[in-house]
Amino acid sequence: MPNIKSAKKRVRGSAKKEVVNNNISASMKTAIKNFEKSVKANDKDQASNNLNIAIQRIDKARSAGLIHLNKAARLKSRLTKAKNEME
């Protein structure tokens, strides 16, 4: 446990940021899984809707600095490719 006042503040701030970052990461992963389920079920309308949600969540994680730019692009590319192969 830190003794210095500013270090104590950093611990509190870090804990708050950790909660927010975990929520963003979890929602991104959930959105991706929901999209993959709809692709597997071959539901085009639901897949299209879930793709848009997944891309929004990926972009949010990227802007928060939780994932690298290239990883975000790779994920979006793979998801879009999967949707296009349904048709």
- Total strand count, please? 0
Mean pLDDT: 96
Can you write the helix and strand succession as a string?
HHH
* CATH topology category name: Methane Monooxygenase Hydroxylase, Chain G, domain 1
Distance between the termini: 57 Å
Summary, kept brief:
This protein is mainly α. It is built from 3 helices and no strands.
Fold and architecture overview:
The structure is a single chain. The protein has a single domain, classed as Methane Monooxygenase Hydroxylase, Chain G, domain 1 (Up-down Bundle). It has helices at residues 5-40, 44-63, 69-86. It is elongated and about 60 Å long. The protein contains 3 helices and no strands. Helices cover 85% and strands 0% of the residues. With 87 residues, the protein is mainly alpha-helical.
Write the layout of secondary structure elements.
Elements: H1 5-40, H2 44-63, H3 69-86
Helix pairs in contact: 1-2, 1-3, 2-3
Keywords:
3 helices, single chain, Methane Monooxygenase Hydroxylase, Chain G, domain 1, 87 residues, mainly alpha
